[in-house]
Design a protein that fits this description.
Radius of gyration: 18 Å
Number of helices: 9
Largest sheet: 5 strands, parallel
Distance between the termini: 38 Å
Helix content: 25-40%
Number of strands: 9
Order of helices and strands: EEEHEHEHHEHEHHEEHH
């Protein structure tokens, strides 16, 4: 592993997760961060009920977003729920929960959606393309994953125009096969395209740079099909370190973060 010449500078050739931070790093420049996602953004745990069925419970205090907030010294707003899809988020969930309220606007949004859309929802949604996103009127977006996901970004840009967005790809599954492997790779490509389509968008690319989601990793950090407390903390450290890397490698993009949400005109 390369040593940093300075903890405040980028290193040529550095990989996104090559240098892990222990104190939140430069992610701490944000005072409010919203986490839009599904069960893994909600700190979901599984537990057997007395009748033998499995219960699923969202514990926001154990979510990677709240671990990030405690380590980075900022406020985290959980805008997530187990089983969430981009389609449900737009069609009912966000409106019902009041997540478009200006009172909940954030300086940064971490969007981690797609696992349920691509792998588990029935019927599976059409993926679509960036052609499904209407820049002038998000209500005209097509009813595809790209259309819904794009609308999530557009809705929050409307509320907080200068906010920064960090889009999360699914990790690489070492034991994925056939259709699942193809869909995780497709999700990776789609998220990269979305980040390119919108301004102020960056990618936390777990597929390319994150740890391999292997049986050994699940044994260490997993709890059923989700994560244990150690797992959520582990991913919090990865996200903080990845955002720290993004900020160090794009310093001009983040110099005026302090003005986000103030109404003051940037330089």
């Amino acid at each position: 592993m390369k040593k940093r010449a300075s903890p405040f500078m980028k290193i040529e050739g550095e990989k996104p997760l090559e240098n892990l931070v222990s104190d939140g790093g430069f992610c701490g420049i944000f005072r409010t961060v919203a986490c839009v996602g599904d069960s893994l953004a909600s700190g979901e745990f599984e537990k057997k009920k007395p009748d033998g069925t499995t219960g699923f419970y969202d514990f926001f205090d154990y979510s990677w977003g709240q671990y990030m907030a405690r380590m980075g010294g900022f406020k985290c707003i959980n805008m997530s729920r187990g089983g969430m899809t981009a389609r449900e988020y737009i069609e009912s969930f966000a409106e019902a929960k009041g997540y478009y309220s200006p009172d909940l606007k954030a300086q940064a949004y971490i969007v981690a959606l797609g696992v349920n859309d691509f792998l588990y929802s029935k019927p599976l949604i059409e993926v679509g393309s960036t052609d499904d996103i209407c820049r002038e009127d998000y209500t005209k977006n097509a009813k595809t994953f790209m259309g819904y996901y794009g609308q999530i970004i557009q809705r929050y840009k409307e509320i907080q125009p200068d906010a920064k967005f960090f889009l999360v790809t699914m990790p690489f599954y070492s034991n994925a096969w056939g259709d699942i492997a193809e869909k995780t790779e497709l999700h990776h490509r789609v998220i990269l395209e979305l980040a390119e389509f919108f301004d102020n968008c960056y990618v936390i690319d777990l597929y390319e740079h994150g740890p391999v989601y292997s049986p050994e990793m699940r044994k260490t950090f997993g709890l059923g099909g989700h994560l244990a407390p150690t797992g959520y903390m582990f991913f919090a450290k990865l996200f903080l370190s990845y955002i720290d890397y993004i900020i160090r490698h794009n310093p001009d993009d983040f110099k005026q973060v302090g003005f986000i949400g103030t109404g003051l005109k940037k330089l």
